[in-house]
Specification:
This protein is mostly helical. The chain has two domains: 6-72, EF-hand (Recoverin, domain 1); 82-137. The protein has helices spanning 11-20, 27-37, 47-58, 67-75, 79-137. The longest helix has 59 residues, at 79-137. The chain is elongated and about 80 Å long.
Length: 138
């Protein structure tokens, strides 16, 4: 859900996540969700703060009508219902999704590095051309 790929879930990304999970929230509700676990008061959720949602849910520290409690319930898997194999499949799917995202990120990074290298080559060629041109114009 971190569409900005900055390592945080901001208000709009949280909004999209809740909508995709089938539990849309109001703008104010989303702000309150973030505020409830935002330890550094930056208005977005770090990975640690995201995990804090589930820690607080397990400890019973979330309000019953909290959007965070809804998020925690929608994201959990009950092994007694799904069984160990169901839980295994759930977590394997999560790992595969994360690794495919990492591969995609690596491809993007490689493309960006290639573009930077090509730009450096162009700059070097232009500088060499200017040097030759100045030798002929003197």
């Amino acid at each position: 859900y971190d569409s900005g790929r900055d390592g945080y879930i901001d208000l709009m990304e949280l909004k999209l996540m809740m909508e995709k999970l089938g539990a849309p929230q109001t703008h104010l509700g989303l702000k309150n969700m973030i505020k409830e676990v935002d330890e550094d008061f930056d208005g977005k959720l770090s990975f640690r703060e995201f995990l804090l949602i589930f820690h607080k849910a397990a400890a019973g520290e979330l309000e019953e009508d909290s959007g965070l409690l809804t998020l925690a319930k929608l994201s959990e898997i009950d092994v007694s219902i799904e069984g160990v194999k169901g839980a295994k499949n759930f977590f394997e799917a999560k790992v595969q999704a994360l690794s495919s995202a990492s591969k995609f990120e690596a491809e993007i990074k490689a493309e960006q590095d290639e573009r930077k290298r090509e730009e450096e080559e162009r700059k070097h060629r232009r500088a060499a051309f200017r040097e030759l041109k100045s030798a002929f114009t003197q």
